[in-house]
Amino acid sequence: MKNLFVKLCYLLCFLCPQFSLAQSLLVENLSGPITPNEIQAFKTYMNAKVNPDPNKNDGNIWVYGNNGKAIEACGLMYEATGDIDILNRMIHYCDMASAGRNDLKPESEGGQKIVWTGNIEPVWPSDVTEVPARAGVEQGQVLSHMVYCSLLILQNPGIWNLSIPNQQGALAQTYKQRALKYIQESNYVMDSWILPRFIRTNDRNRYYFPGAPNTYKPNDPAPWNQAFMLTNAFVRLTQCHLILNDDPSRITLYDDIVKPNLEWFFSETQPRKSKEGNNVKLFLYAIGGSVEDANHLAYDVEGLYIAYKTDRYGIKFEDLVPFANTYIDMVLGIPQPNGTYAGRIDGTVGSGNSGGDNYVRDEYFYLPTFRPDQFTRMANINISAGRIASYPQGTARLLWQKQQRYLGSLPNQSNLPEQAYGLLPGDKSVAVSLNVDLKWTGSTNTKSYKVFFGSDKGNLQEQGEVTDYTFRIENLDELTTYFWRIDAINEQGTITGEINEFKTLSLNITVPDPNSSYRITGNGGIITAQYEGTVNGTKNENYPNLIDLNTNTKYFIAQKKLWVQYQSPTPEILSFYEIASANDTPTRDPKDWILYGSNDGITWNILDQQTDQVFSERFEKRYFVVDATTAYKYYKLDITANSGASQIQFSEWNLYRVNTTAIIMSSFKAYSTDYGIDLEWKANNIKENTLFQVLRRDNTDSSFQILGEIKATNVDYYTFRDRLPVIGVNYYLIRQMNPDNHISDSDIVAVDYFTNSKLSLYVKEGMLYFISNALLVENISISLFNIDGRKLLVKHFSHPTVGSEVPLEITLKPGVYISQINTDSEVISNKIIVH
User: Fold this and answer.
1) Taking the CA of residue 387 as centre, how many other CA atoms within 13 Å lie in the half-sphere pointing to its CB?
2) 189-211 b/e with 16+ CB inside 10 Å = b?
3) In whole angstroms, what is the distance from residue 658 CA to residue 40 CA?
4) Taking a C-beta distance cutoff of 8 angstroms, is the pair 125, 135 a contact?
5) From CA 341, how far away is CA 685, in angstroms rounded?
6) Residue 672, beta-bridge partner list
7) Would you say the C-alpha torsion 699, 704, 709, 713 has a positive or negative sign?
8) Most buried by CB count within 10 Å: which residue of 110, 308, 645, 833?
9) Contacts of residue 298, Cβ cutoff 8 Å, sequence gap at least 6
């Protein structure tokens, strides 16, 4: 009886949209096909709760708000299910959007508004009270929604000549007639609004805002998220005209607009490495703007996917994997104390659009296409955040992605799998551990992966077949080059992967000159210890002797346990460390110890742990490898046991930041410009196939990140521009990688970066200062918070003097703080780390 009741209720939902059993969306599972219950819950919810008012477009709700996204949600669910009721609901929303267009909507209902052109334009103004009304390239997104409906109809010829149900009067049309109507009206908007104003024909058809009388970003290029909104419309219109084969000149026109704008976007992205070692892409919100935020990245992702899916514009699967990595590693990979994720694509947090979310935005569910290993994680984030029951755009995309994964797993699929990408360790990696986890980014249409591995590139041996994205290899030989590849498999066949190689680390370290810049404990830092050693007249056996490069001096103390600590002026990545025995009895030698690293002197991470160590000779130097990738400012050696005496003694404790051959780079300089930070360096005696890596870190980073790579040529002078430096101090080094896997690091260069559009805070001797290097006519409010969100300071200024340093009368203890500078036109948020 209970099952009969449930079925009856669902039947009522289907026949009577106003009746709802639960009126909430449903995700029953994260694998397999979309279930009947999930489909019915979606239809019931959309009919009962998503009923937009066509007379309202407040906040661009038909562009990127819930109304416009309702159209996309229905489209994706129709793609996934083929349920005609969902398509009918999508048509209903498109009809409402079309009727709400300014030139079609009666004045009594808020239409017929004069926009900034002085005319009544075919647009959807975001604020009906604004005079004149404003609209720009983002209007393309409304067209994209409606043309998406046309495209879905045209892709299903079986319904072309069927009448749309429940349509009367002028709306009584067949599905194909309605599709053609949306296309006709969208082309009209393009011809009368977009093409004359926002396409700069003398600059490769790029998207620009016009000048006067337009007052919104006059003569500036469109921000990337808005650019993609327009590109989406051109792409979908082109797809429709290709099916209809009715207007080749328009197809050519739209292609000539889409292609250069996509190329422009890709040219403005910068390749980086995430802390996980994956390739990521960083870029600005707009040319000349600040780094892209996680809010607007969602629209960039959507636009990239729509263009990629057409297979028309040269965008390949592997081109989009780094963008998926950007969201996964740089946004989701950097959770914040308040339960949100990073708000910008460089892993930082601001406010407003860059304030961070505690859930996955709907457009991001395109990304598991390129990182299938992340689908379950992303879905569970939304389940945990309560973003399923009443989040139709997100839930629809989640269910659509689930269906794509299911269809890709069927034995009768027609496509070969994509190649597995994102192999780690990366190609040409050096100093890889002797026990290594091989990892890769998944691929579409793949059921399993075969792992091939060996030291002979031409004769790799199969290691096993897995359905996961990782495989462990143990007990490798030191200083050996290994090769590996991943083959992607499904019922249609196998795609052979590319071969990566790496070289394992050395257990027998070749020690560089201790007087070189490689010795961290020789860089002018401070050494301290738990206990003072013996200091009595000419007898000095205190802890500073540990870094004097003289085994004839020592640190001696009548303790069985102790710690010593070194504070470096700048964070450094430790490669290995040295401990040397002293002159007296071996029973005083250290036996068990733990080496720690920290960036605040409070929170410590274990870097190495040794037990039962024996020094066979007096004044013996022993070296211990640390497979570290993170830079630390503080290093602490905690000796937990000696070899039996009631005292501890040892003569040297030195830290080394790299194990390399000699540096051949010289004249490495970096300096701030109006366009970022420019680097230049000279190099000689370059071997063939040498590679330079440019690395950077700032005060918010614990390790250096790769900005880019340059292949060496027959010249001896090289340059690189960092177009996305952080405000404040940026540290750079150049890493030379020779074809024999030897690496050489330059000295580290620091550059203090400010831009004319920024205000900044900085700490000097514990005091917080505010500085303005721009001519402002605004009021300024400064707030400071600790890492737990407690407000520590609020200050207000009016018209500060350019270049003045203003002390904010607060002394900061070591720790992490969040600053927020509010002006009349922007909000600037940054992390401040005090050491």
Assistant:
1) 19
2) bbeebbbebbbeeeeebbbbbbe
3) 61
4) yes
5) 46
6) 677
7) positive
8) 308
9) 225, 361, 362, 363, 364
CA–chain centroid gap for 413, Å, is 32
* Backbone CA torsion sign across 46, 47, 49, 51: positive
Element (H, E) at 300: helix 294-309
CA separation for the pair 565, 567 (Å, rounded): 7
The residues near 708 (Cβ < 8 Å, ≥ 6 apart) are 270, 271, 272, 693, 694, 720
Tokens, residue 686: 């370059």
What are the structure tokens assigned to 698, written together? 């700032």
**Is the separation of the CB atoms in 520 and 656 below 8 Å?**
yes
Backbone dihedral region of 166: left (phi > 0), alpha (psi from -120 to 50 degrees) or beta?
left
* Distance separating alpha carbons of residues 108 and 568, to the nearest angstrom: 71
Alpha helices in 171-293 (DSSP H): 175-189, 195-198, 224-244, 248-267
* Sheet containing 805-811, strands listed edge to edge, beginning at the edge strand earlier in sequence: 759-764, 767-772, 805-811
> Is the pLDDT reported for residue 149 higher than 70?
yes
Spacing of C-alpha 431 from chain mean position: 26
| Token representation of residue 348 | 């930082």
Q: What is the pLDDT of residues 544-599, one digit of tens each?
A: 999 998 999 999 999 999 999 999 998 888 877 889 999 988 999 999 999 999 99
Which tokens hold the place of 358? 């505690």
Structure tokens at 323: 């963008």
| Signed CA dihedral, 236, 240, 245, 248: sign only | negative
Closest-CA residue to 562 (of 589, 595, 529, 521): 529
Structure tokens that stand for 254 in this block: 């739209």
Cross-strand pairs, 90? none
Cα–Cα dist 240/179, whole Å: 9
Confidence of residue 11 (pLDDT cuts 50, 70, 90): very low
d(CA 403, CA 445): 12
**Length of the chain, in residues:** 835
CA distance 748 to 725: 16
Report DSSP state, residue 259: H
pTM exceeds cut of 0.85: no
Q: pLDDT-derived band of residue 825, with 50, 70 and 90 as boundaries?
A: low
